[in-house]
Specification:
- With 107 residues, the protein is mainly alpha-helical.
- The chain folds into 2 domains: 33 residues; 54 residues.
- It is 73% helix and 0% strand.
């Protein structure tokens, strides 16, 4: 019986630190691998950076299109832009233009 009492007496001094280490390990694991952990934060940061680059590209395309629309505005009509759009839409060309027709590409 003396051995069992000795183990119980020593276990009382060890249980607290062991539970503390387990709690710290649990929280440390979830800091890294949890839903809001470091790995999740890193993945979200990469997605945000990718979205920002797409946004910058879309804004540049929009600015280009807005500029072209502005050139077609009746108040500031650009003759070159009007000619370009008319030739494209009506399928017209000058007599000295070289036309290259592309057929369907075979796969």
């Amino acid at each position: 019986m003396g051995l069992l009492q000795e183990i119980r007496a020593r276990a009382r001094h060890v249980v607290g630190p062991v539970l503390g280490v387990c709690a710290v390990g649990y929280f440390a694991y979830h800091v890294v691998h949890g839903d809001r952990g470091l790995i999740a934060w890193w993945n979200i940061k990469q997605r945000v950076d990718a979205a920002k680059s797409v946004l910058a590209q879309t804004r540049a395309e929009r600015e280009t299109l807005e500029n072209r629309v502005h050139l077609m505005n009746p108040g500031s009509l650009d003759p070159d832009m009007l000619e370009e759009r008319a030739r494209l839409m009506l399928n017209y060309g000058y007599s000295n233009d070289i036309v290259i027709l592309e057929g369907k590409r075979r796969k």
